[in-house]
Amino acid sequence: MNPPRPLQLPRLVMRRATVVALATCAAAALSGLWATQEDIEQEVEGALALASQIASVQALAGLDDAAALQQLAALQAGHGLRHLRLQLHDAGGRALLPPPPAEPAPWPLAPLDAAYRRWLSPADERHVAWPLPRPDGQAWTLQLTASHEAERREALGNLAGMLGALGATVAGLLAVMHLQLRRAFRPLQQLLQAVAQLAERDQRAQVARLPAMPVQELDDLAQALRAVAQELDGAEEQRRRLSQKLLTLQEDERAHLARDLHDEFGQRLTALRVGLTWLARQLPTEGPLRTRADALREECALGQQEVRRLLGRLRPDNPALDPAAGQPTLGSLHDMLRDLLQRWTLVAPDPQGPQLRLDVTWPAAALARPVTQDLALAVYRMSQEALTNACRHAGAKQVCLRLSLTGPTQTPHLRWEVADDGRGLPDMHQALRQGRGLAGLQERAWAHRGRLQLEAGPGGRGLVLRAELPLPAA
């Protein structure tokens, strides 16, 4: 037994997911390098700005209060101090320059900034203060307090970039998996349809035409379905040949019984009738013996009539079914069925009995089209059984047997239909399973590559039997 091959679909998904992950990692590395360079530049600029502002503060001693306050306000508004907040108080502690308000975070970072301020970043009161002498002899107090704003904005920006990269990676992976799985499983609908078609003989040929699948697993499944369809076709063909052989054996047995009835029992009845006729002639015209002899002679005549009826049911008396007469045609099949209906009329001459009608709707040129003897006999037997069911069991008053041709001219199908106005069937599926007559009709139709269909008649009254049987190629 060969070891199982590794699955292809997981490898395809992982291969493309790896490509997306590597591309994302590369993009994250480039973005990190760029952010690192930006951070270095900002830190250097902040250090230089701090040195410049220290030098500016030292030069404030020679300025009056208004000029010094204006310059300090400019320093505070210049945002040169990245991690410090500048405050100024006079000698009495009054704030000359209060701390500037915190800048609001951008909208995408606002929820994170609010949560960070509340739970993780309490107010930092660490500071450095020194006196700033004034010309009037008093001193202001210059205070630099620790500020987390710049670092917080930078950290939140980095966090947002990381979350964006992570979201892009997840979205890319999901998109790759979606596209790959969609591409891989797009033919799955065809495979599911093929599984349903395995049970339908007419659609099973479509299973063999399944295209190549994009994934090895689905292609293996398609090959398995093709093999199953081929095996089913082979098994069905073998069963069909067996069914045809059984039907042939039944016909042979009927023919044997018909010969025995005709050669043995029929001849004895004929001899008995001839003897009774001779005996009646020897007796007086009037009298109980002559009456009894005439009655026995009539009984023999009825017995002969019954034997002929049985012979007609066992073996159709038609030259077209004689192997020595050659292959029958649609015309001879028409004659066989017309004789069948006439025989039914003779058997049941009651004017209140069922009215039988034969409708043939094929062109005159089709009368010479050959059919096989097995098919002709199958149509005859199906018609015989359908008439029996309609007239004797369904209580029908009108029975119509219809024949027509459907399909292409080169490979037509014989459409056979029997419609009656009888009691119908309450459950057609159960009738097919339990009724031997309908089961026999179904078996004969199936043996000749057809399918028996049952449906209610117009208005829900009666029953319509229908089958389409392929004819041999012309």
Automatic annotation (TrEMBL):
Residues 218-252 form a coiled coil. PANTHER family: NITRATE/NITRITE SENSOR PROTEIN NARX-RELATED (PTHR24421), SIGNAL TRANSDUCTION HISTIDINE-PROTEIN KINASE_PHOSPHATASE UHPB (PTHR24421:SF58). One of its GO terms (cellular component) is membrane. Pfam families: HATPase_c, HisKA_3. It is found in: Membrane. This is HAMP domain-containing protein. SUPFAM superfamilies: ATPase domain of HSP90 chaperone/DNA topoisomerase II/histidine kinase (SSF55874). Its main location: membrane. The lineage of its organism: Bacteria, Pseudomonadati, Pseudomonadota, Betaproteobacteria, Burkholderiales. CDD domains: HATPase_UhpB-NarQ-NarX-like. It comes from Ideonella livida. GO terms for molecular function: phosphorelay sensor kinase activity; protein dimerization activity. Gene3D superfamilies: 1.20.5.1930, Histidine kinase-like ATPase, C-terminal domain. Residues 182-237 form the HAMP domain. The chain crosses the membrane at residues 155-176. Keywords: Coiled coil, Kinase, Membrane, Phosphoprotein, Transferase, Transmembrane, Transmembrane helix, Two-component regulatory system. It comes from the Bacteria.
